[in-house]
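Service request form, structural biology core

Requester: graduate student, group of Dr. S.
Request type: structure prediction, single chain
Budget code: on file
Notes: please return the result as structure tokens.

Sequence provided:
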Amino acid sequence: QTTNQVGARMKSMVFLGLLLLGLASTAPTSNDDEHLVITQEFFPEEFKYYEGKNDIVKIVVPLNNLNFEDDSSENSNNNNSTDTFLFFVELDDKGDKTLYVRKHDVTSKLLENGRDAVSPPDDSQLAYFAAKDGLYSYNYQSNKAEKYGAVEDDLIGIEMGNISQGIYVLTADKHVYKVTEDGTKKVKIDDIKNPEQIVLDFSNNLFYVDSEKKIYVANEGGVKKIEGLPANPTKVTLIRPPFVVEEGIPVIVDKQSYLIYPNGTSEYTDIDINVDITAYSMEAALVQYYAYDKKIYEYNVLTILLGDLLEELKKYLDDKKNEIQSIATRSRSEFLNKV
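Core staff response, request fulfilled:
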């Protein structure tokens, strides 16, 4: 694939992901039909999946057998929302976070002071959690979080590819470590300075935001600053990409959404966000989740396209039907075989 082809696919998928927030009443602020502005009207009651007591600041949809027990194209689409398995984190008024799991429409508290979750994109039922007192793993049979390895740092972030490649953890004192050997070995990545957020793409490029809200990417070639983004932003949010995207991730810089790539470049997506979306989850591609106003909303592309709702949105997606159909008929393993 050429760089242009990869960029086009990435933009199409992230555009599609954010577009799912739109209602039929979308009103672009310019004459350019490709420009989308997301407002509070884009969160209809029909799409509400869960309502919490506090702001939801993280949503994680596992890409392994917690959600994909049979890697057929039918099951990998995960069209039945009652079967969707996800983790999420709530932030209370005191600044404390709590990790929850939701499966078969039942929500359970997993971990006090749980900050983040991740699962390897493979055929396991593994998941790992970053918490104030270290690293935890998920026990599917008991539906509980269990202490994992010897890591006891105050963790605020966690990322991973395949389990054989290790787990990346971000500490509250702004260091990134690579954890291997069943959680018993921890090595600091010295090249990463003052990180506050981390996200790993599906080609093992580790993107991070530093304390000055500048974005970098770290890989085998070293550390590179991402260019072309607005200067001096007040808020930056890195987002885990859809699993159909091999390289690069989405990022929200203040109210504008961009795509950033491991070669250090960036691209504006023509999508502006005028509401406070507190969490994004587009990993599963065709079924996506967003948190707004203490609620999680679910957007199923195929349901929207095949149903009677959002007729104007269907027209808006018309030129992306081939991409959507391709994703819907291919299995998860086809996209993840390079991870």
